[in-house]
Amino acid sequence: MPWRLNANDLEAEKKNGRNGLKLSIFIIQDSVRKGSKLIALVRPQFPSFYWLNTCYLGWPSTHTSEEGMMVHWRASLVAGIFAAAALSILCVDCSNSRGSVISAESMSLEAIRLPQGFKITVYADSVEGARSMALGPDGMLFVGSRDVGRVYAIVDHERDNRADTAYLIAQGLTMPNGVAYRNGALYVAEIDRVLRFDAIAQRLNNPPTPVVVNDSFPDDEWHGWKFIRFGPDSMLYVPVGAPCNVCLRDDKRYASIMRMNPDGTGLEVFAEGVRNTVGFDWHPKTGVLWFTDNGRDWMGDNKPPDELNRAPRKGLHYGFPHCHGDSILDPKYGRESACERYTSPALELGPHVAALGMRFYTADMFPEEYRSQIFIAEHGSWNRSEKIGYRVMLVKLNGERAVAYEPFAEGWLQGEEAWGRPVDVEVMPDGALLVSDDKAGAIYRISYGEAD
Ligand SMILES: [Ca+2]
Ligand SMILES: [Ca+2]
After folding, report:
1. Is residue 336 located within the same domain as residue 400?
2. Which CATH number do you get for residue 403?
3. How far away, in angstroms, is 161 Cα from ligand 1 center?
4. CA 234, CA 244: separation in Å to the nearest integer?
5. CA of 362 to the centre of ligand 1 (A)
6. What is the pTM of this model?
7. Which of 218, 283, 413, 436 has the fewest Cβ atoms surrounding its Cβ within 10 A?
8. How far is the CA of 201 from the centre of ligand 1 (A)?
9. Could you tell me the residue range of the domain that residue 138 belongs to?
10. Cα–Cα separations (whole angstroms), residue 58 to 7, 34, 83, 192, 402
11. What's the pLDDT tens digit per position in 308-332?
């Protein structure tokens, strides 16, 4: 039984003055008291703090959040080094605690609640760590991952709405969360660079060596994994998250959405004051960019909200780190500022819900009321005493104004246990909505009006 301590408990210990070596000693004492094994696993492609968090701290990757993964890495690193010296660490496989692959049979899809007339099925399973999605030609689906370092191409050869093959396009990459497709090429975003795999559809079994499109992004791992997507202006939009929970950096690239030409030239900041967006899309009629943003942590259970934002032009500032949501001044960075100076969210979402992927619904399988509305995948909270999120939400618009925010698909969270975590959504050519889940290692298909 790996030793476990959640983020809130760990933070409480830090507030009690346990840091560095003191915290390390506490971790060892507590694990011994609980009769747990200290475990470690060497994964060459991952930074040391990562396995220390996931294995040594017994804090599985799939239970950490967009914000939470890096919070305590320094403490865990010190703890790990101390433990390695003081104890002979057992080297065991912790693939179970990483829990990425769940077979279709063990998924509780009957637990997922949907509006009348919709149904959910498994489109693909065994897609370990499935994160952001992008459509290729003929319904081919590209899927990035974060911790497992892989990029997949998923194909439903028989077109029976159940994928048959997950081709491994790349592995060993550094958090290749972002994928985009344009003119026959697959673009993949690692933390500090964007790669391009040319003529990918013809080379699924023999992927080409990627071309480096641009490798000038910061290499900070905290909020460094990226969602990418081509805009209607044919530019590739590439965010750079804040390398922290809350901080202000002189380098304008941090906490921004950048964009560049497909060949990597012309890189510029498009939007400022964006803490960590992991999903965006353009309004199908107006061409305006909308994006989610994850709020800061450690301001309590109910604030600040996550955000849905609207960016009608270049050069707007969305408030971070000074102002959170519509009107919450940051205790440190908000003192000499005012929320009126920044662009307010189009909609305040739930606190700590981890709003990630979002798309406009642009097809016609779903009823009229869903068309040109927004679906948001909420990965789920960690920085909250009662979990929320772990669902797909619908945001209704009246013109360019967001007027409602309601659950569309929920049930991955049962009590305080989540068996799945939605990351991204994608509208397929037939109009079905796909949902990726990096905890279950699956992609679901939500359809309307289809017979069982
Ligand atoms: Ca099939
Ligand atoms: Ca904001």
Report:
1. yes
2. 2.120.10.30
3. 6
4. 31
5. 24
6. 0.80
7. 218
8. 17
9. 104-448
10. 11, 13, 14, 28, 40
11. 999 999 999 999 999 999 999 999 9
